[in-house]
Amino acid sequence: MGARTVNRTDRLYALVEELRAAAPALRSARRLAEGFGVSVRTVERDLLALQEAGVPIWAEPGRTGGYTIDARATLPPLGLTVEEALAVAIGLGALANSPFRDAARSAARKVTAVLAEDDARRTARLARRVHLLEAGDRAPAPTGLAGALTGGRVVRMRYRDAAGNDSERTVEPLGYIGKGEDWYLVAWCRLRDGIRAFRGDRVLAVEETDEVAPPRVVRIEELDIPHGVLRPVLGE
Fold first, then answer.
1. 131-150: b or e for each residue (b if 16 or more CB lie within 10 Å)?
2. Is the pLDDT score of 34 beyond 70?
3. Which of 115, 165, 199, 232 would disulfide-bridge 120, Cβ 3.0–4.6 Å?
4. Is the peptide bond between 215 and the residue preceding it cis, with omega within 30 degrees of 0?
5. What is the pLDDT of residues 177-193, one digit of tens each?
6. What distances in angstroms separate CA 124 from CA 10, 56, 84, 114, 203, one per listed residue?
7. What is the distance between the alpha carbons of residues 18 and 2, in angstroms, rounded to a whole number?
8. Around 44, how many Cα atoms within 13 Å sit in the side-chain half-sphere?
9. Of 3, 4, 71, 59, nearest to 28 (Cα)?
10. Do residues 111 and 85 touch, judged by C-beta distance below 8 A?
């Protein structure tokens, strides 16, 4: 690998590719630094940023140690423009009251970690100019509801309806609908023996069980949600 000078974003791509090509062999930080024409400290900082972004890179200590990567589980870091990174930041920021807010904050950190330093600063500066107008009277939906969907498990929860009545529910999560600050869990309710929509801020407690939820079909007309036009988040 001959020495070459590249910007940080391109270097992050190249570091991943270099480690992938060498895997399972190790590459020392010094060898990588010489190949990219930067300091060992710069390479170590880049590798740490990739690790924080979720790239499976491991360090082996010792005189013969170095870095290696799981080539089967990696993709190069995203080459986002400032405009794309800003759009991602806004989208993730809009999930602050949703069940996905912890994952959104983690994803935002990963996106920042793989941006060039100048791009990261510019994205942060632009993002501070964007605000969301909210009523501010909604409690965040429990983050446990996010795992209920991704895990495909039956959930037990305590729910307070619009009249203020509490009940214990066992439900099979089917999806979510977001409407302004409200997030609705769409689920098969075993208490009511039908599909129901549970507003996230009214879910008082949630516990995921070990039971796998059976497959079910959702029909929009069965949902009791005031809404306009439902739009899939990934488009048609």
1. eeeeeeebeebbeebbbbbe
2. yes
3. 115
4. no
5. 888 888 999 999 999 99
6. 21, 26, 12, 14, 33
7. 12
8. 9
9. 59
10. yes
Q: What is the CA radius of gyration of the chain?
A: 23
Q: Check pLDDT > 90 for residue 129.
A: yes
Distance between terminal CA atoms of the chain?
45
Phi/psi of residue 172, nearest 5 degrees: -110, 105
Task: Report the side by side order of strands in the sheet with 182-189.
Answer: 194-199, 182-189, 166-179, 153-160, 203-212
* Alpha-carbon distances of 12 from 46, 82, 122, 206, 208, rounded to whole Å: 7, 16, 19, 40, 38
Q: Angle at Cα 222 formed by Cα 221 and Cα 226, nearest 5°?
A: 70
Q: At 210, is the pLDDT very low, low, confident or very high (cuts 50, 70, 90)? A: very high
Q: What pLDDT was estimated at residue 181?
A: 85
The answer on pLDDT for 51 being more than 60 is: yes
> Could you report the per-residue pLDDT of 87-110, keeping only the tens digit for each?
999 999 999 989 999 989 888 887
Query: What gap in Å lies between CA 199 and CA 223, rounded to an integer?
Result: 12
